[in-house]
């Protein structure tokens, strides 16, 4: 484009350019807005009102900002499965799938990252979506949650602001799938309700080992209502049977480059191999009369319910046992919505949940092309559906007859509403009163006590990882003012945290740093999760002329313990042992990396080249730096000794196959060995 034409184009565009600096906030209609923090409610703890035109305009615009990709949770992968409750929960709910232990309910689960686009990497530091669609006999129920039990904001009206700050900055569309940039941390510093969620996001929870080893949470406070109409407040949990485990940050970054599909590949392969991921459903229950008995507001989505105070009752199990047949038709077209409920499950006045009840339907309308997204195969309920909705994009149902309204006499007033006794949904009759206000309850204003609770609950390695995460993220921020604001903010959480981070990024620690909160919740630490060698991948580094009989014994023990062994060598094909046995090579050093394995078993061979030894040494040293278990027999023992690794925690070297295998399996089950003297 010539300079002259460029000037004309600039003139054309000038009328559309907007410089918002120093201006007053208005709606799209030019109406000046007096409050942009709170949605309009019936009382400061009441439900959000439909007449809040500012909230609806802001959220509607946000919901429609991307087509066709999801605005958030664009990068996802899913699987089919089934859920079965252990025993009837009729004491709490009349939901059929939670009261009939003989019933297996089909489910579809979509895991996802939040910040990145559809083509981004899966092992970035981020919250993970954990959305479950239950195809019950009473209709679809969607439990739409995350792998973190709290959220950044307390009111849904701020959700567009959060995501705008988190996403790539609009002037240069960078960085992709990352929170390590100015606008995100500027939002955090100026919206201090985010403190608790940020602590989780800077922890190991934000870089999970796999979807199979990741907790899920409903985040919000919901209601369970039984047949007698009695209500209990409830929070939902998914507890992975394999425990909750993570990768280290250096490993996560390398995985992003080596295998951007690492998490989906892990899920796909585990199901294909019959190693079906299992999760137990847990509930925390608070009787309605105990709503105000805690030192936090149970409706605040930035707060969790400590498990030591309100125990998690494990009530059922979900098994993922079938991969999708077509990613687009199923994973991409599935439409979740927290408003998809069944009798016996209802909502609370959590202001973030209240906004989601509007937003999700609105988003599906634009993303899936109209109001008939429920007719797509992946979204169709397993029970019949009948109503007077007609036409629209994507309509598949061919309705017969002349009547499409209620009430009517021409069709004997059908379809007609179902009574409660017939399974008709009835909202819990909560008494609501209060002035119409844009406000937040005073009980929502404590932003730091649970952030400190989380910090106090971490093991020393976990605390070190959080310090490193803050230092990395803020080290990517250009604005020194934003850096200082964040340090000032998290000085309210921990003096140790603030001091370490400030030193790393050249900021000052406030004189009044620290917190008086001493309470902890051991359940929050991954140190207290399930530890097992099951489904762990072990990379076997081996060459020709290996000791066939002894290696076979070790491999049998590893497989009997539930591990998956994959052979790594310098070339593809078959390797021969000294007894004539053969091993198929799964990977070469060129096509694989140590970050793709949970543990390494190093055997070597009698005659290997210098390049083989060099590549094997790199694999072992990187696995060691990532605190992974390493086992060695035969020539591999000498390699460990040559590199002074043989006496380190989690490194097992031996000559007797049986004792070695037992010790190595135990090392694998521990996941990582943090007592190694390594700084990461």
Automatic annotation (TrEMBL):
Origin superkingdom: Bacteria
Domain Catalase core: 26-414
Lineage, uppermost ranks: Bacteria, Bacillati, Bacillota, Bacilli, Bacillales
CDD domains per the UniProt record, alphabetical: catalase_clade_2, GATase1_catalase
Catalytic activity: 2 H2O2 = O2 + 2 H2O
Crosslink feature (3'-histidyl-3-tyrosine (His-Tyr)) location: 337-360
Species, as recorded: Halalkalibacillus sediminis
GO CC aspect terms: cytosol
Region (Disordered): 1-30
EC annotation from Swiss-Prot or TrEMBL: 1.11.1.6
Descriptive protein name: Catalase
GO biological process, one term: response to oxidative stress
Entry keyword Metal-binding: yes
Sequence similarity: Belongs to the catalase family. HPII subfamily.
Keywords: Heme, Hydrogen peroxide, Iron, Metal-binding, Oxidoreductase, Peroxidase
Biological function: Decomposes hydrogen peroxide into water and oxygen; serves to protect cells from the toxic effects of hydrogen peroxide.
Cofactor: heme
Pfam families registered for this protein in UniProt: Catalase, Catalase-rel, Catalase_C
First-tier enzyme category under EC: oxidoreductase
């Amino acid at each position: 484009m010539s300079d002259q034409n460029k000037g004309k184009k600039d003139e054309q565009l000038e009328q559309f350019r907007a410089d918002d600096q120093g201006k007053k906030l208005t709606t799209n209609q030019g109406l000046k807005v007096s409050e942009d923090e709170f949605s309009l409610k019936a009382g400061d703890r009441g439900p959000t009102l439909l007449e809040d035109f500012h909230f609806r305009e802001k959220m509607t615009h946000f919901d429609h900002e991307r087509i066709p990709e999801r605005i958030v949770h664009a990068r996802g992968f899913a699987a089919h499965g089934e859920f079965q409750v252990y025993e009837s929960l009729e004491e709490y709910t009349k939901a059929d799938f939670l009261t009939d232990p003989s019933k297996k309910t089909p489910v579809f689960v979509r895991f996802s990252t939040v910040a990145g686009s559809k083509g981004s990497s899966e092992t970035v530091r981020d919250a993970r979506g954990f959305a479950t669609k239950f195809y019950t006999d009473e209709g679809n129920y969607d439990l739409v949650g995350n792998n973190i039990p709290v959220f950044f904001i307390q009111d849904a009206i701020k959700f567009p602001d959060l995501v705008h700050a988190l996403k790539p900055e609009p002037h240069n569309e960078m960085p992709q799938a990352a929170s390590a940039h100015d606008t995100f941390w500027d939002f955090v510093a100026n919206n201090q309700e985010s403190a608790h969620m940020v602590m989780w996001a800077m922890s190991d929870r934000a870089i999970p080992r796999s979807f199979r080893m990741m907790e899920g949470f409903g985040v919000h406070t919901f209601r369970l209502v039984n047949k007698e109409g009695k209500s209990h407040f409830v929070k939902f949990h998914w507890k992975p049977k394999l425990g909750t485990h993570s990768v280290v940050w250096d490993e996560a970054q390398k995985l992003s480059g080596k295998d951007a599909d690492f998490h989906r590949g892990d899920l796909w392969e585990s199901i294909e191999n019959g190693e079906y991921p299992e999760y137990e459903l847990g509930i925390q229950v608070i009787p309605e009369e105990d709503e105000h008995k805690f030192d936090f507001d149970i409706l605040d989505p930035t707060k969790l319910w400590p498990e030591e105070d309100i125990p998690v009752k494990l009530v059922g199990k979900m098994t993922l046992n079938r991969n999708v047949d077509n990613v687009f038709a199923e994973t991409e077209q599935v439409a979740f919505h927290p408003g998809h409920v069944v009798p016996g499950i209802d909502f609370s006045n959590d202001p973030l949940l209240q906004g989601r009840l509007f937003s999700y339907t609105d988003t599906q309308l634009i993303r899936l092309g109209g109001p008939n997204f429920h007719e797509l195969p992946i979204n169709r309920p397993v029970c019949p559906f009948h109503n007077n909705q007609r036409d629209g994009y994507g309509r598949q149902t061919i309705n017969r007859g002349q009547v499409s309204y209620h009430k009517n006499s021409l069709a004997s007033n059908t379809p007609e509403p179902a009574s409660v006794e017939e399974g008709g949904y009835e909202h819990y009759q909560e008494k609501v009163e209060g002035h119409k206000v844009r406000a937040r309850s005073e009980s929502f204003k404590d932003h730091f006590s649970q952030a400190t609770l989380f910090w106090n609950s971490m093991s020393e390695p976990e605390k070190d990882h959080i310090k490193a995460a803050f230092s990395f993220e803020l080290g990517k921020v250009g604005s020194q003012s934003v850096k200082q604001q964040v340090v000032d903010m998290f000085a309210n959480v921990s003096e140790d945290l603030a001091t370490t981070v400030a030193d790393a990024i050249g900021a000052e620690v406030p004189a009044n740093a620290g917190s008086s909160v001493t309470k902890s919740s051991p359940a929050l630490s991954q140190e207290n999760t399930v530890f097992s060698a099951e489904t762990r991948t072990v990379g076997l580094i081996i060459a020709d002329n290996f000791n066939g009989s002894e290696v076979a014994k070790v491999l049998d023990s590893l497989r009997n313990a539930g591990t998956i062994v994959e052979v790594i060598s310098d070339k593809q094909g078959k390797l021969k042992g000294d007894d004539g046995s053969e091993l198929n090579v799964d990977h070469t050093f060129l096509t694989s990396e140590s970050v793709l394995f949970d543990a390494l078993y190093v055997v070597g061979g009698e005659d290997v080249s210098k390049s083989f030894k060099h590549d094997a040494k790199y694999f072992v040293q990187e696995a060691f730096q990532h605190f992974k278990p390493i086992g060695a027999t035969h020539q591999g023992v000498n390699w460990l000794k040559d590199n002074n690794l043989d006496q380190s925690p989690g490194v097992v070297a031996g000559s007797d196959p049986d004792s070695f295998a037992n010790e190595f399996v135990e090392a694998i089950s521990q996941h990582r060995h943090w007592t190694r003297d390594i700084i990461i």
